[in-house]
Design goal:
With about 170 residues, the protein is mainly α. It has a three-stranded parallel beta sheet. Helix 2 links the parallel strand 1 and strand 2. Helix 1 runs parallel beside helix 2 and helix 2 runs parallel beside helix 3. The protein is globular.
């Protein structure tokens, strides 16, 4: 990797995503060596209880954002570039019909489609499947009995925390 940089954006709007990848590419000589799509938002509403506005918001954050970022980054990538999508254990072991799980399963399939499309150009597209973590969204949306069942299904018998995924904040 030639340089390091991170950019946080309002990732559900096409223009924001286009601008974000353009700024990053300009900063690093016109090319993107890596893109990591790692956003998530969830709620406990069931698949058929969630309203259409919440459906659109959850699909936007959890799936559309990765598609938009990848779509706008693609012309600025080249051989040796890598795109990494961070789905969720919920994509493979969904809760009771949560929109979050549907969107993250879609992210798995988006990754496969992007890999088969971009692979011939030497661009790697992969998922990094993180195990069960206990973020504040889980605390708000998973009842205690479901958490216990979830914990028993994990080999180590415990969930990770956000620090396991992102590491400590700078300066800590």
């Amino acid at each position: 990797m030639r340089g390091r940089g991170a950019l946080v954006t309002g990732a559900t709007r096409g223009e924001h995503c286009r601008r974000a990848v353009t700024v990053c590419a300009q900063r690093f000589g016109g090319r993107l060596d890596a893109l990591v799509n790692n956003v998530a938002s969830g709620e406990r509403s069931g698949l058929f209880e969630v309203g259409t506005d919440d459906w659109d918001r959850l699909m936007g954050v959890n799936l559309k954002s990765a598609w938009l970022m990848t779509r706008h980054a693609e012309p600025m990538t080249g051989e040796g570039s890598a795109i990494v999508n961070i789905p969720s254990v919920g994509a493979r072991r969904p809760g009771p019909g949560m929109v979050y799980s549907v969107a993250k399963a879609g992210l798995d399939h988006l990754t496969k489609g992007a890999a088969s499309t971009l692979g011939p150009r030497g661009i790697r597209v992969n998922c990094l499947q993180i195990g069960a973590i206990w973020p504040s969204t889980a605390a708000r949306n998973i009842p205690a009995e479901a958490r216990e069942a979830r914990r028993r299904a994990i080999v180590l018998g415990t969930e990770g925390t956000l620090c396991c995924v992102r590491g400590p904040a700078p300066g800590q």
